[in-house]
Amino acid sequence: MQPVAAPSHRFRRLKRSVALRSMVQENTLSLGDLIWPVFLCDGVNTRQPVASMPGVERLSLDQVVKAAEEAAGLGIPAICLFPYTDPSVKTVGCEEAWNPDNLTNRAIRAIKAAVPEIAVMTDVALDPYNALGHDGLVVDGVILNDETVEALVKMALVQAEAGADILGPSDMMDGRIGAMRAALEGAGHQGVAILSYAAKYASAFYGPFRDAVGATGALKGDKKTYQMNPANAEEALRLVERDLREGADMVMVKPGMPYLDICRRVKDAFGAPTFAYQVSGEYAMIMAAAQNGWIDGDKAMIESLMAFKRAGCDGVLTYFAPRAARMIRAGL
Ligand code: PBG
């Protein structure tokens, strides 16, 4: 009988103990990787659960300040604000978007006054304020690009004025980054960073978010004339290149888990700070399966976040941020 040849490589040697496994671990998830998206609502001492996102609540101003304090205490570097807008405030002209005293701008000021060390990021898009639910201005059923960019610039300027550290244009209109950057420079806001939602796909995974911001009822049709076709990858690289050239400091791929190939390609092609957004539907999937006892929620969460690091991301927007931060602090 022939002797069995020894395997040329015994990969199991380095898997024998915690010590050896940790020595050869290639990627790590740390507190600095987390950006926490939170939802705002009117009122005082109010926390409204979002049914399709178990564990996520809309927070009134006093409560979002508490959340920011909690985040800073945990070591989370940034918080990102999304307003739930009452249908009575939504208009076809989206004027509330650039009201210096709208919910988002009041929240920016309250957080920066109470917790100056946390970076405040905002969403620059018209959908929370649009009676027609779109990220752009709609006239006769058509989403107008350049008029929307003008509106977004007004919105960006009041957010910068309120003290936002990072603006997140998520609208996918053409030319918005360049226009915003020029306006920020002109208004003395040279220090305000832009994290462009550069490769944002027209995705079914945004459903729970639209519930959270109250946009579900308003939106007629879909966002396919401005968000990306999920079948495309080369276009993502061209969009990122364009946004970096127009003055974006950082870029985002969104959603996250179904688009890890895009994260990797963007990071490899440009080397720019690259973020992924683990969106509401991704959060909801993990939570739903965990609540049914079908997967281990903590383990699935950490595995999903580590995947972004492995794909080359510098960080991730995730509704899991505080939960992940607690696990990271406890040593995972
Ligand atoms: C809209 C916006 C969306 C999200 C962030 N900004 C939804 C959309 O494009 O319809 C989705 C985030 C999530 O699903 O968690 N400007």
Give a nutshell description of this structure:
With 332 residues, the protein is of the alpha/beta class. It has helices at residues 18-23, 61-74, 103-114, 145-162, 176-186, 207-212, 234-246, 260-270, 280-291, 297-310, 321-329, and strands spanning 34-40, 47-49, 57-59, 78-83, 119-124, 137-139, 142-144, 166-169, 193-200, 250-254, 274-278, 315-318.
Structure description:
By secondary structure, the protein is an alpha/beta fold. It has a single domain (30-329), classed as Aldolase class I (TIM Barrel). The chain is 38% helix and 17% strand. The protein has an eight-stranded parallel β-barrel with strand order 1-4-5-8-9-10-11-12, surrounded by nine helices. Helix 2 packs across helix 3. The longest helix has 18 residues, at 145-162. It starts with 17 loop residues before the first helix and ends with a helix. The mean pLDDT is 96. The structure holds ligand PBG. Ligand PBG binds next to helix 6.
List key phrases describing it.
332 residues; alpha/beta; TIM Barrel; binds ligand PBG; Aldolase_TIM
Unreliable stretches, pLDDT < 50, 5 or more residues? none
Q: From the alpha carbons, calculate the radius of gyration and give it in angstroms.
A: 21 Å
Q: Which structural category do the helix and sheet elements fall into? A: alpha/beta
Cα end-to-end separation: 48 Å
Relative strand content: 15-25%
Counting H and I runs of at least 4 residues, what is the number of helices?
A: 11
Give the SSE string: HEEEHEHEEEHEHEHHEHEHHEH
Question: How many β-strand runs?
Answer: 12
CATH topology: TIM Barrel
CATH H-level homologous superfamily name: Aldolase class I
